[in-house]
Structures are given as structure tokens and as C-alpha cells.
Amino acid sequence: ADSVAKYGGIGVLLRSITTKYDNNPHTGVVFYADKVERVPAVAVGYLDSDFLRQALIEDPELEVNFKLNSKWFPDAQSYNVIGEITGTKYPDEIITVGGHIDSWDLGVGANDDATGCIQSMEVLDLFKRLNIAPQRTIRCVLFINEENGSRGANAYAQFADSSLQKTIAAMEADAGSGSPRDFSVDSDSLTINKIKSWIPVLSETGILRVRKGGSGADVGGIKSAIARIGYGPDGQRYFDYHHSDNDQFSIIHPREFELGSAAMATLIYMIDQEGL
Amino acid sequence: ADSVAKYGGIGVLLRSITTKYDNNPHTGVVFYADKVERVPAVAVGYLDSDFLRQALIEDPELEVNFKLNSKWFPDAQSYNVIGEITGTKYPDEIITVGGHIDSWDLGVGANDDATGCIQSMEVLDLFKRLNIAPQRTIRCVLFINEENGSRGANAYAQFADSSLQKTIAAMEADAGSGSPRDFSVDSDSLTINKIKSWIPVLSETGILRVRKGGSGADVGGIKSAIARIGYGPDGQRYFDYHHSDNDQFSIIHPREFELGSAAMATLIYMIDQEGL
Hints:
The structure is a homodimer of 276-residue chains. With 276 residues, chain A is an alpha/beta fold. The first copy, chain A, folds into two domains: 2-58, 3-Layer(bba) Sandwich (Glucose Oxidase, domain 1); 81-274, Aminopeptidase (3-Layer(aba) Sandwich), CATH 3.40.630.10. Helices cover 32% and strands 21% of the residues of chain A. Chain A contains eight helices and nine strands. The first copy, chain A, has helices at 2-6, 46-58, 110-129, 151-162, 189-196, 199-202, 238-241, 254-274; strands at 12-15, 41-44, 81-85, 90-100, 136-143, 166-172, 180-186, 209-212, 227-233. In chain A, helix 3 (110-129) links the parallel strand 4 and strand 5. In chain A, helix 3 packs across helix 8 (254-274). The radius of gyration of chain A is 21 Å and the shape is elongated. The first copy, chain A, starts with a helix and ends with a helix. The interface between A and B is medium-sized, with 15 and 15 residues.
């Protein structure tokens, strides 16, 4: 949209960026350079895009009208949702785990990111069900406003980085409900190698790799954390659903989803027991 | 069924062994010790099983009648289907890749094992499309009668083991169309470590692990092969479909399926270039 506007275009119709050949457009955000006038931009479903393309080939003089009713509303107060199990030995050492509770208006946000929220809550629930009292405080944070400014993440990061408590690790689940694959870790190489040494344990849940990499929008800003960690499920189907009406609860595979909770809980258990 | 018959039972109704909570029973085989009289055995769908269980709780005197019409037909002649690209440098060194072309009467056998057959054919097709003339002969074998006696596999193994040609590797794809995970290799540790050293290349297609393990029913009997290899896709959904009416083409995810072909072709390319 930025380039279109810069060169005098009056609007953008974009073929929806998804791998699923259906007619469900996705939504999302566009970015503009400061001095560029903003133009309306919409994503169009695959089938409609193909229809439009063919119609344009048959009639190069084709005119398209489109009308958007989206708008910015004034800011409103909202909140992160936080729960924790207080550590028995090091209550001021915090391991956070979370997802984001906002989603787009299309679909119900099952995969992005109800999944991550529930998996994060299940980490704490698994500790309780297995009667494990963690040494460190395990804190579940459901972040608000990830999709449109990350204000919940920013507010939490500011709080955590100025707290007298110490964030040992901050884990995020925001990559869908696929089968567990890996964890990406944003930390120094010694810490990453320590986590890598736990792969034989983690592999019981399907995790075959720990790699250096970004964590995610919700915890990436917590600079004081020793490690920022992203949970990485298999992502081949993620953009079949992402930000579209396909993102419904029916697409969640219960076992793949539950293995994700188990993978996250296992890594957090190791961090709790051994520290970082 | 063997135990039921041994203790005087007159038949078996088994809750279908699947992870999917629907009413599609699976089929399969039962085994009996030599001297045990055979009794009828059927799998019942989840929903019907739950209904029967509840009915039995409410009325312990409940009688159930069931009638099977399955039977053994006389043997009929059938064939493996074989195609190959002849090697330019070592035409008598064979790398086989295959799946099985038979399936059960429920479903259409999309995941078990049309997927493995097409992926095996695609390995050869990828060599052709990329204009790679392999040094060794790449042979695609579609095995008949895997589900009920493995006679096609046995016949091929007998042929391969008595041939003047040398089977370098025999790869099988018979674990569904999920996202690529690993290869299991039945060979000596030196060979397995050589294949492991290619993981950085294989990981481009999603393969994160090479492990010592069985290959599969179709190629496991080729004793003369230096390595017998099983392609291992993610299996969490496999028993949602296995041997049931759920095994339809609609459950194949095109990209996960194609990544499988790419993974198999990549490993076979490495074996062709470097030998084992």
C-alpha cells in the first residue's frame, strides 16, 4: 500500500496471501511511510481474485469500485490477564509463559491465538495436576492488543524490566496449534546450548530442535529476561487459517494441541529445576 | 481374537482403535495361534461402541447379534509396478523407493498408501524435472498385497537379493502424508552416521532427525541392501484415517505431501552422489 500510494495509486486490491485455495480473504495491517497519503487496501479471496484477473484480461477497461467501512476508534482501557504459581524456593525468579487474547474480526481466533493462551494456562495446570510445586514462580500472561500495536506486551515488558523480580525466561506460544517441532531461543550461546542439552527429554513431546532465533511479538521486548523463547509447532497449515474466517475451533487437532502444552510445560519444568 | 477364542468366546466386538471420535470403524487383520478355533471379529465405531456400552450397563442381559460376510477368495495373479531411471555411471547399483498400491475396502486408501506411491513416483519425476541424470539407477517399486501377506514385497526382496545388481538403499513411504519429520534407517552405525551428516541439507524439507530403526513392511525384507530406510512424516493424524472411510483424498495437505516427495528425493540424491 505504501508503494501504491507513493506512485499515485488510489487503492489496493491484493490477492489474499494464504496457501488455501478458497474464497476466504485474510485481514491484517498495512504500513505507510510518514509522508505518504494513505489509500484504502483490501485483501480479496483466491477465487474472487482469479475471477477479477480473468475479467480484467477480457476487458482491460474494467472499472472496480470498492468501499471500506473500517476505521480507528478512540483508545479504550484494556488489560493483560495474569495468573501465577508462586515459587517455593526462588519466588522472585519469574518464568513467564503466554499468548495473546485479542484476534481479528474474521474467524474466532482459534489458532491465532486462543491456542497459545490455553496452552500457556495448561502449563500451570499441568504443574498442579502433577502435584509439582515449582521452585521458581511460573507466571501465565495473556497479552492484550498483540495484533494492533502490542500495547499489552509493551506494558508488561516495561513492568518486568523495571521490577525487582528477575525474569529468568519468557516463553510465547503464537504460531498455531500444529504438532510440536522446535523452540527458538533468543539468548546467549551458552544458554541456548544448555537448552539444547534437554532435547532428549523434550523429544518425548515431539520437539526435535532448539535453535537460535526470535521469540515473538509478545515476549521479545522483555530485555531483562535471560532467555526469550518461542514455541514452534509445525507451521505448514498456519496460513491456511491465519486472520481469516477459516480460523475456527474445528481446525484444532486435539492431540497436536495437547502435545504443545506438554512440550511447553516440559521445557519450563527443566528451566525451573536447573535455572538458566 | 486369539485370547477370546482360547477362553471360549464366540466372537469379538472391538471399539475401533483410532484417535478420531466419530463413527467410522477401521478394518485390519487378526491373528490366531495355530490350534485356536477362529471366531468372528469386528471393529465398531466410537459412537456405536459408546452406545453399546451404555446399553449393556442399563441391561446386563443384552444380547447382540452380528453377521460377517467377509471371506477368503482363491489367490489371483497380480503384479508389482516398477519403473526406473538407469544410472549413468553405476547402472547396476540400485536405489529403490516405493509404497504399496493395495488398500482396504473402506475409504480409498489415500493416506495408506496412495500418498507413498505418488511420492515415490515424484522422486523420479523430480530428477527428470531438474534435469539430474543420476549416477546410480533409481527404481520406483509399487508393491502389491502389502495389507494382506506382503507377497509383492516378498517377491521383490527375493528378486533383489538374488540379483547380480546391488541394492544400495531401499526406501519406503508408508506412514501417511504428514509434514516431514525424520528417516528411520536399518543399517550399520557408520552408514547411519553418514546419513545423519546430511541432516543440514535434509532439514530444508523439514527433516530434523535420522534415527536407527525399522524401515517398513515393503522394503524391510531386502536383506542385501546396505540401508533399508523408512520415510517418517508427522504421524499424529495417521490413525484418524487409517483403514477407515476417513482415508479420502480430501485429507491430504498438498504442501505437507509435496515436502515429503522433496525430502525423499533429497536423501536419494545424496545417496546417489556419495554412495553408502
